[in-house]
Amino acid sequence: MVEQTTGGGSGGGLGTTAGRAPAPVAPARPARAVGEVSAERVKRIPTGLPEFDRVLGGGLVPGQVLLLAGEPGVGKSTLLLEVAQAFSAGAATSVAMGTLAPRTVLYVSGEESGEQIGVRAQRIGASSPRLLVADETDLEVVLGHIEASDPALVVVDSVQTLASGAIDGRSGGISQVTGVTQVLTAWAKRAGVPLLLIGQSTKENSVAGPRALEHLVDTVLTFEGDRHTPLRLLRATKNRFGPADEVACFEQRDSGLSPVVDPSQLFRAQRDVPVAGTCTTVSMEGRRPLIAELQALVAQSTTPQARRAVSGLDSARLAMLLAVTEKYGGVRLADRDVYVSTVAGLRITDPACDLAVTLAVHSAVHDRPLPAHVIALGEVALSGDIRPVRGLAPRVAEAARLGFTRILAPPLVDPGEVKVPAGVRLVEVPHLNHAFEIARRA
After folding, report:
1. Which of 279, 302, 287, 434 is nearest to 364 (CA)?
2. What would the mean pLDDT of 376-393 be, rounded to a whole number?
3. 3-state secondary structure of 404
4. Which of 261, 289, 306 is the last residue of a domain?
5. Same domain, yes or no, for 142 and 90?
6. 430, 411 in Cβ contact below 8 A?
């Protein structure tokens, strides 16, 4: 046994090999001024699905590597199969390029056979002759398919199923997944072809899941939704070529995923007469304002410890709001069961919906409904103060568009920041006591 030291401290701080610093190499592209770099425009390739392109920032970029993450069964394969169909059929149009010609798309599946993909394609109407399907799990064979078909877009479903004998580790392990992704990413950058990867995520966020690949790709999209509801949300969590806070809504049907142009109608319960224990608010999902209805039910508890049940909201946040409501609303909740839920399975994390939660609970306790034309916006502090929220102007515009005429909102920092439409009254509510007083008079 001979001891050998690698990576000495010489070489001006650079890593060394066998005691020698790496020799400098002339760069192929010289460094440029930042003004010249930012002036270059990124060429966009529309896919044919407007909602998908909007989340990306206008379309795909040559050489872009995109990772679509989500739990199993949420509809990731269906979404990218529809993208592949629209892309290969030449359905995409743009002002600068006009109608695009059909292009070859290679759809590689390591989870399903070609026959299974064919059944799904027939169900959603994907029949383009330029949409090629290959069921393969060997990376080298996949690269052979790519070289033989010369595609303009490659879809891999899913990246965890591919493996290579030249990479150490078991199939689906962290070393295999990262190694396969690096090889495919290098090919996409070299060929200038967009690459769409599907990654399975788990509730435990295993190391072989998308979390281990986010730094290797250009764009990360998450596809989420409740299995008991047809609504699906596509979010951009990382995007080197566009905004990282866009959201698109889809509705899952037997014929595939249908874009939802006005998702606010899905989250709002339709009724003619107001019901006690409900309050409407506007939640910001990325840059898109969505109308949401909060529902609360308060009943006398039959157990020594009152029950708290929540759906679509954070349980810790709800516990805090119930405590604030009990203190400043003059109600007793310690011996009552409280159930709070959103409509249509919407998951809300926006603190601007706090005021609507407290008003819904207050309305349920007193069995006194709020008027149907009232909407509530504001973050509730532990002191009972109503704090300002971001994006108040688009929230007010969305509420006015759907016919709400009275908006309860925090005090305006700048009176000119919000343009209130005609026929709409904006009521500034500085404290929760003021909001409860308005609810009592309603």
Report:
1. 279
2. 95
3. coil
4. 261
5. yes
6. yes
pLDDT one-digit tens code per residue, 306-315: 999 999 999 9
Q: Which tokens hold the place of 267?
A: 């989250």
103/96 Cα distance (integer angstroms): 18
Is 16 within the bounds of a domain?
no
Phi, psi of 224 (to 5 degrees): -135, 160
Q: How confident is the model at residue 318 (pLDDT cuts 50, 70, 90)?
A: very high
Residue 330 belongs to domain with CATH number = 3.30.230.10
Report the candidate in 184, 234, 190, 242 with the shortest Cα–Cα distance to residue 213.
184
Is residue 228 within 8 Å of residue 73, measured between CB atoms? no
The predicted structure's pLDDT at residue 95: 39
Give the closest residue to 429 by CA, choosing from 405, 404, 412.
412
Q: Which domain holds residue 192?
A: 42-261
Do the bridges between strand 406-409 and strand 374-376 make them parallel or antiparallel, or are there none, so unpaired?
parallel
- Exposure pattern of 282-308 as b/e (b: 16+ CB <10 Å)? bbbbbebbbbbbbbbbbeeeeeeebee
Question: Could you say which DSSP state residue 13 is in?
Answer: T
Which range (61-70, 83-92, 109-118) has the least confidence?
Answer: 83-92
Residue 273's pLDDT band (boundaries 50, 70, 90)? confident
The residue to which tokens 């790709």 are assigned = 217
Longest alpha-carbon distance in the chain: 87
Within this chain, do residues 211 and 353 fall inside the same structural domain, yes or no? no
Angle at 269 between CA 266 and CA 274, to 5 degrees: 155
Token pair, residue 105, equals: 């798309």
Whole-prediction pTM: 0.79
Q: Which residues pair with 99 in a beta bridge?
A: 93
d(CA 376, CA 282) in angstroms, rounded, equals 8
Side chain identity, residue 270: Q
Pair 358, 321: CB distance under 8 Å: yes
Residue whose pair of structure tokens reads 């109308």 in the numeric block: 291
Check whether residue 295 and residue 238 sit in a common domain. Answer: no
The Cα-based distances of 176 to 33, 187, 222, 289 in angstroms read 39, 17, 22, 41
Contact of 79 with 234, CB cutoff 8 Å: yes
**109 closest CA partner among 134, 131, 78:** 134
